[in-house]
Amino acid sequence: MIDFIENLKKIILEVIIVLLPLSFLFLILQRYLLKLPKQYTKNLLKGIFLTFVGMILFFQGIDIGFLPAGNSIGIYFGNLKSNWLLIPLGFLMGLLITYADPGVIIICDQIEKASSGFLRSGMVKKILSISVAFFVSLAMIKLVYGIALITIILIGYSIVILLSLISDKEYLAIAFDSGCVVTGPMAVTFLMALSLGAASVIEGRNPLIDGFGLISLIALAPMIPLMIFGLIIRYRGGLTSE
Q: What residue ranges are annotated as transmembrane (predicted)?
């Protein structure tokens, strides 16, 4: 209980340090430059308060829930004789976590608005979720069978560079932004803990070498399918850059 309270105090202080300067900046801009209606300021203060409470609850939940759970699951499956089960487990976890990630939901909604409804939010979210799931399972293959991370990185980013040379500007921008968004707190906390837990018990694996690197693959995940999707749309006469 004491550890819980101390950790909560630490998180509250960190959230205050993050939000306070940003809040002051918003209020100064509103007071001297924007001068929007008072209702806007009230809504802004309400939003800051809800963000403050939400961040505290979220980070506390990560510390007492996601990180220990991910680590324990990784250790359990890593200790199994059939530790290849980490591969379908990684696919399932990657799919569910990405689909539920708030950052993914936000960017998918923004993509739909920016494209005037041409790129549906649900469709983009499915593409992101499935692609992340595939690359998480690929990371588990790397972990279980000892494949070098550099091999996957070189192949993956070489494909990204080649596709970026022929992709439309809209899909190129969406792909790279999506790659950043899917490496959000949900993926980093749970999936990385899963990977580190498994690497700590699989014979011949080093958590520092084999446990890390997962996030670099998750960042890569949406880029390739989204740019390929853009090329398909171009071929069919859809949304293209001028």
A: 12-32, 44-62, 82-102, 123-141, 147-166, 178-202, 214-233
The closest alpha carbon to 191, from 36, 25, 56, 73, belongs to: 73
Q: Which residues contact 204 (CB under 8 A, 6 or more apart)?
A: 146
Give the residue among 190, 95, 94, 205 at the shortest CA–CA distance from 144. Answer: 205
Question: Alpha-carbon distance 66 to 216, whole Å?
Answer: 20
Give 128-187 pLDDT, tens digit per residue.
Answer: 999 999 999 999 999 999 998 999 999 999 999 999 999 888 889 999 999 989 988 878
Alpha-carbon gap, residue 233 to 241, rounded angstroms:
11
The two structure tokens encoding residue 93: 């976890």
Q: Which helix (H) or strand (E) holds 221?
A: none
Query: What's the pTM value of the predicted model, to 2 decimals?
Result: 0.82
- Determine contact, residues 98/133, Cβ cutoff 8 Å: yes
Give the domain ranges of the chain.
Answer: 1-79, 82-242
Q: What is the pLDDT of residue 141?
A: 95
